[in-house]
Every structure is written in structure tokens, then in C-alpha cells.
Amino acid sequence: MSARKNPRRMLAIPAALAASTLLLAGCVSNEPPEEENDSMSQESGSGGTTNDEPGETVTIGFSAPAADHGWMGAITRAALETAERYDDVELRQAEATNDVNMQISHIEQFINEGVDAIVLLPFDGDALTEVSLDAMEAGIPVINVDRELSSPFASRATILGDNYGMGVSAGTYICEQLGDQPDAVVAEIQGIANLPLTQDRSQGFADALSDCGLSVSTQVAADFTIQGGETATSNLLQAEPEIDAIWNHDDDQGIGVMAAIENAGRDEFFMVGGAGSLDVMEQIQAGDSVLRATVIYPSTQAADGIKLARLIAQDKDMADLVSAGAPHTIQLHAPVVTADNVDQYLDLGFRS
């Protein structure tokens, strides 16, 4: 059996629980002694220190697709800003590219340089799997971000948004607004219809709507671009003379969606966005458009990847977890942003 197919040759995934001691001192008060609280608060990470305290300098390679829309640009900016906060991180950023072969060559270069960890947002997960396996076999942990690789052995950890959860969150919010209107017309503006992430979002949306007796009346597909959003929405509005709610999967294409709505002079419905752009959050905050909410798809995933790569390379445990090491998979939450909580999320918004 080849080394690549034998999981014993891969980096081990820590799964053992760290030992914990139950303190059974006979206290007459329910409040623990102050000294105990202080001690426990410091026992995050390795060596009794918090994970953010300086450690051994590590070199992290970072590769992501080209910033051809707001969300992807925010992904890269957040990763770079996070790396800059650590004096013990040397970040080597590959040129952002949508050329699969070029991205593969960048990872090969990181392997040849012997970096301590790689944070990878693959343009194509299947295409980047082989070189990621090469990195893992070379002893370099790969932290895979957003788009999954096709082998569980190709990464030490994976950080994902929740596409199905986005749909659930959007559908649940619309149910809260329209659940007592079984004949409500709910429209859906997808991104690229045949992508798995789009299909996951649509499935979550349909499942959530069905819980309150609603369903998608009209579904159109854009292409995650402003022009695509405008064209798809114009067609939608011409086909449906009355609409109660719209879910638009992507706030970047939402610029075109809003342009079509304004051109048509339609405002009888409310709209829920997707991803969490700052532009949309500001419109929600202002309360002067059909935009009522948006669903977060975190643009902080690669930044989380940088922090996790540093932690793994320095052989630290994850703070606030009892289990040893770092999780193999982290899936981030997809909360709904409304006028009631928008202030909480403004710092995470990105410009479309």
C-alpha cells in the first residue's frame, strides 16, 4: 500500500481528551476560591499560557484565489491583518490566482521552502488535493479553508462556512415574518445554480420554509456578479407581479439585484441578503430600502486559518477546549443580521 493511501503515514489527528482533575475541596460557599479562578483562566493553550502569548517563530504559507469580488478580497485582508498581529509569525503570501496550475506550483514552492504550515483556500478543491497530500506527507500541516479537498488526509484541519445553514437562517427569518401567510410569494435569487454550495444553500432554505408551510414560488440564478444579479432580478420582477419576500444568496451580486429593484420601482416585498457585506449592513441600519436582513457567510475563515496554523505549528492546544490539540473540522455559524443586532456585526462586514 502506498504511503498516500495509508492513514498511518499521515500526520496524526489528536483526539485524546486532556486529563482533568476534579477539585473536591470542602467549601462552605458556592463561590470557588479566587486563586482557583485565576489558575484556571491561565491554563489555556500549551504550557499554562494563553495561545496569543509569543512562542517559537513559525513560517506560514498562504494561498487564496484572486480577489475578484468583495468577499474574496476581505478573506485575504483579514488573513494578512491577523498574521501581522503576531511577532512570532512569518507569513509568506503566494500571488492570488484563479489559475489552478499556478496555485499548485505555489504550494509546491511552500513545500520546497519547508514552511511550518500552509493555509490554503483552493480555487478548486479537487485539483489542489494531490499537492496538499504532498505537503502533509512532507510533515507540513495544511489548514484548508472554505472549499473542501477531496481527501480527508489532505489537510490537518478544515475551516468552513455553513452554506446549508445560510439557507436555514434565511428561511427561518422569512418564516418569522410570513409564517401566518400560507399563500405568500417567496422568491430566491441563487448564485451559480450547479455549484454544490448553491445547492446546499437552496436546500437549507427550502427545508426551513417547509417548517412553516411556505415554499419557494420562483427561483432564478445569477452568477455571483453585479451584472448577473441585475439581469436575473429584472427577469424575476417581470415574471412575478407581486412578491412578499426575496432571498438573494450573495451580497456582492446584490448590488445588481438592488439596481434592478430600484429600476422597476418595486418595494412591496422585503429582501434578505447573503454573506454579510458592509454595504448591506448599512442599508439595514438605515432602514430605507427593501433590505431587512442578511445572513453571514464569514469572510474571516482564512484569518481563523492563520490563527489555527500558528497554534498547530507551535504544538499548542486550543484555548477553551478540554480536548488536546485542535479540531479536525470547524464549521462557522451563519447568523442573521437585522436592524436589532447590526451593530454587533459591522466590524465583520466587507465592501462589495
From TrEMBL:
Keywords of the record: Signal
Pfam families membership: Peripla_BP_4 (PF13407)
Signal peptide region: 1-25
InterPro entries attached to this UniProt entry: Peripla_BP_I, SBP_2_dom
Residues in Periplasmic binding protein domain copies: 60-316
Compartments where located: Cell envelope
Keyword presence, Signal: yes
Cross-referenced PROSITE patterns: PROKAR_LIPOPROTEIN
Region (Disordered): 29-58
Predominant location: other
UniProt biased composition (Polar residues): 39-52
Family: Belongs to the bacterial solute-binding protein 2 family.
Protein name: Substrate-binding domain-containing protein
Organism (species): Myceligenerans indicum
Biological classification of the source: Bacteria, Bacillati, Actinomycetota, Actinomycetes, Micrococcales
